[in-house]
Write a structure and sequence with these properties.
There is one protein chain. The chain is mainly α and 86 residues long. The chain is 41% helix and 8% strand. It is built from three helices and two strands; from the N terminus they run αββαα. Strands 1-2 form a two-stranded antiparallel ribbon. The protein starts with 6 loop residues before the first helix and ends in a 7-residue tail after the last helix. The model has no long low-confidence stretch (mean pLDDT 87).
Length: 86
């Protein structure tokens, strides 16, 4: 008889595969604006190596003249999260 993994482990494994193999760049940002996860497509898109983005503020990816405005938008998103065009 096959032993099944708990659903949470299967879901996490599925997430990791989708995240890693996605053909679009994906970043996971915490409430302080620091990058917690980046997938290979995002790293390639922005010219970074594996895990180089982790721990940095996401504003390093925004043109310098727009960074202060972006911080405001990010804070607004975390106050009222919803899908927004980028």
């Amino acid at each position: 008889m096959l032993e099944r993994k708990p659903i949470a482990l299967e879901s996490e494994a599925g997430f990791r595969v989708l995240f890693r193999c996605a053909t679009i760049g994906i970043l996971v940002i915490n409430e302080r604006g620091n990058i917690e996860l980046s997938n290979p497509c995002a790293e390639k898109l922005f010219g970074y190596g594996p895990a180089e983005l982790i721990g940095n503020p996401m504003e390093i990816l925004i043109p310098e003249n727009l960074r202060s405005k972006h911080t405001h938008h990010r804070d607004g998103y975390f106050r009222k999260p919803k899908a927004r065009p980028m």
